[in-house]
Every structure is written in C-alpha cells, then in structure tokens.
Amino acid sequence: MIKTxxxxxxxxxxxxxxxxxxxxxxxFTIVGKADNGSEALILVEQSLPDLLxxxxxMPGLNGLELIRRAKMINPGLKSVLLTCHEDFHFAKTALELxxxxxxxxxxxxxxxxxxxxxxxxxxxxxxxxxxxxRSLSLNKLLARDNFFMSLVxxxxxxxxxxxxxxxxxxxxxxxxxxxxxxxxADNLExxxxxxxxxxxxxxxxxxxxxxxxxxxxxxxxxxxILSWTSPAPGARSQNDxxxxxxxxxxxxxxxxxxxxxxxxxxxxxxxxxxxxVDEACALRESYFYxxxxxxxxxxxxxxxxxxxxxxxxxxxxxxxxxxxxPASRLREWMEQSLRSLEDAKYxxxxxxxxxxxxxxxxxxxxxxxxxxxxxxxxxxxxxGRYRAxxxxxIRFFLERLEESRGGSRRKEIxxxxxxxxxxxxxxxxxxxxxxxxxMNSSYFSRLFKTEMGVSFSDYLIQRRMERASVLLANSESxxxxxxxxxxxxxxxxxxxxxxxxxxxTPGKVRNQSL
Length: 514
Known about the structure:
Blueprint: E1 2-7, H1 11-19, E2 28-34, H2 37-47, E3 51-55, H3 63-73, E4 78-83, H4 88-96, E5 101-104, H5 110-152, H6 159-168, E6 179-185, H7 195-207, E7 213-219, E8 222-227, H8 238-255, E9 259-263, H9 273-282, E10 295-296, H10 307-324, H11 329-344, H12 348-367, H13 383-405, H14 411-422, H15 430-436, H16 441-452, H17 456-474, H18 479-485, H19 491-502, H20 506-513
Parallel strand pairs: 1-2, 1-3, 3-4, 4-5, 9-10
Antiparallel strand pairs: 6-8, 6-9, 7-8
GO molecular function: DNA-binding transcription factor activity; sequence-specific DNA binding
InterPro entries: CheY-like_superfamily (IPR011006), Homeodomain-like_sf (IPR009057), HTH_AraC (IPR018060), Sig_transdc_resp-reg_receiver (IPR001789)
Protein name: AraC family two component transcriptional regulator
C-alpha cells in the first residue's frame, strides 16, 4: 500500500477526498488528514507517508512550503497539488517542486483523481523495484567480497560449499595462473562521501563482459581484481595495462577522483591469493613520489637513510628558522626540503614520519604565540598530498603570526616567550628570564603577569604540559622521556601536574593517540 496523507483547510473538501474513491482497492491507504499545513507537517514526521496530497492556499504554512519541508524529512515523497484555479503558474510550481500533478479541486472527478493516482503508483512501483534490484545487487557484491576475503585469509571451506558459492554468486575462477590488480583511491582521506560506491560500480560495469576477471572490495577505498590474462609468470599483459588505464579514465569521469593501480606477480593458484594481495598493497609505496593516477608494475628502489639522522638534520634547520626568523623563510625552506627529499627518494614511511615530527615542531612553535593548529591531518599516498597540507599549515601559521604580532605585547615579554618555547627542557626560572631581558626579578614578574594575564610560573608549567600533550600524541618517546624533554626530571611530579592541568593522565592521552 502507498501511504497517503491529505491536507486541506476546506473541511468539506478534506472529507470528500477521503470518500471520493475506494483508496485501498487501488493500492493506497490514508494514514492521516490535516486541515492546516503545520498539523500536516507533524503527521509527515509521525507517519512518513509516500504521497502527500495538499491544497496550495492554506493559512500559516501553505502547501508549497509544506511540500518543501516534508521532502526534507522524506526526500522520496511524492506530492500532488490541489488548487482552486487552472493556471499555468500552478503547473510551473508543480514542476519546480517535482510534484506528480496538480488538480483543480472544485471540478475534480473520481476519474481525474484515479488517473493521477495510477501515474503516482506506476512511478512508485518502478522506484521500489529499482531499490530492490540495487539491494539485491549490493547483497551479491557483499557476499562476493566475503567469499574472496575468506580466501585471502585462508579460511577453510568445504569444497561443496565453495562450489555452491561460486555458482550462486556467478564467480568466474578459470584454471591457470592469475595476477592481482590492486586499485587504490588516491589520498583516500580526502574522498567525498559516496566515492566508494562510484568506484565499485565502475569496476563492476567494466567487468560485466569479462569472465577472465573478478573483483572484490579489500579495504576502505581499495579493491582487488583477479585477472587470468597474464601470458606467463612474471610477464605483464598489455591487455591488463590497457584495462587499468580505461578503469582510471572511467573512475575519473564518474567520480572526479583519481585511482592508482598496482600489479602483482603472476600467481599459479588461489592458494597464493594472500601473497599476491600483499604484494599489490606493498606496491602502493612505490608511487609515493609520483603523481596521482599511477600505474605500478614493479617496486621502486629507495635510498637508505637513518631515520634519526634525517630528522636531526631537518630539525636543526627548522629550529633555527623558527627561533631566529624571519618566519617568512619558513615557506622557502620547506619547499627546498621537499625538493631535496623528492630527489633523494628516501623510503616513504621514513619521510612520512619526518613530516609528522616536523608538524609537531611547528605546532610547538605556534604555541609560543598562542596559535593553535586544528584540522590539519598529515596522511596520503603521494608526496604531493603532503606538500599541499604542509603548505596550508605554513600559510595558516604565518597569517596567525602576523595577527598576533599586531598586538601590544612588550618586546621583552615576547623575547621571554620565544625563549621558553625553544628551551622548555632547561631549568628555566623567573630570575634567569628577568636577567635575560635586563630587568630586576620583582618588576619582571609583575610585568609578565600584566602582559600575559597569568604568573610566570603558571605560564611555564602550562606551556610544558601543552608541549607534553603534543609529544604524547605524536611521538614514540616514553612518558618519562617526554617529562624530561619538557624540563621535568621527576616522573611522579610530571604525572601529578599533568593530571591537574589537563584532567587526564599521560597514559590515557598516549593510549587515545594509538
């Protein structure tokens, strides 16, 4: 039954509509009546009708606004407008609202109403049929995914059950060797909602007439295609390469998202599926220094480097710029560093770790000026993605820095703040900082509190806890090591103060970041 709601401020018309035809004989059931738009909207929320028949001119919430609001509750709602006059204006409005029809209510006959309802019913049934087909198709895809994932994870299967699954799901498993074609949406954390569905549909459509290939969704935004077209173990079929390029083109056209494709070695039997999938996934690193939309047939060779030495080298240069300025050098230095890393071709995992640690250092520097980084996430498949995020971080930092320097803070206090953030691991005392800016201790203490709104000791401990929070979330150092890094030698004291300042234990913050 198609659930129907009627709304009209003319009570006689409302009652007449209810009895003009035997609704249920024609597949409709009236779930509610309302004599004003506001009451009708409440009924829409309560009963979620499939069809709304409403007068246009009602006091308060008129029929047009009622339909607009009702479709916000149920986007698939069908509607029919009732009007007192046959006018092009109302026909135009009905079209704009995607209404099924508009009817002149004072000349309305049962046949006119039935004609409109038959049109509504035909459209509704067609849509329900499409939904059922989509649901069935989705269920088959999910079942196919589960089937192949069980093979990847080598879940023991009864031969008869496996044969039944292959038959029911219409899965082609030709004899002979195959290879895995891995399909990965580039820089997956930036994908808009629904992209996975677009890409899945593209792959499914492309493989409809290709019994020599099958596919399954492997993980978020990644798919594995089994291809039995390789001519020999170790060989690369031109047919597979052409197929991959066509897939990339169609995905880009359908979803405006690029995908990169990797090719595993030939695998002689399904027992080696896990190994082939792992190889296809591992090849993702090989296009880190490429543009999105890469085709990777073999592993990239990377230069050896000690991660600690690499970080120390870049940290020293970054620290020098952040502490001595000018800050505007930061953008130029970062671009030079990115070019240098691209030329060196270090392992992507090491470079990604370096970028994350550099971001921690920049966050700490920003904190000296009461600048907080929010919404920046360093992740992705390509160096270009990291370049874009780091460029945005630097732009944000320099803009906020310019704003903060537009204030009235005295330069002596700013010097002390800069020093504190660059030397948090040292034994910093109020007397020492007073001497650093050529002031007596008492005057410096009063001036600092006037300028910053907190005492020197409170500010110092607050900055130490803020830096500790950044390190707990983004470094692999132990909690005791982090305590020393921020200038607190006694771990027990660090635990107590951190809990008092932040309301959380260091261990809890560390666990939340894992």
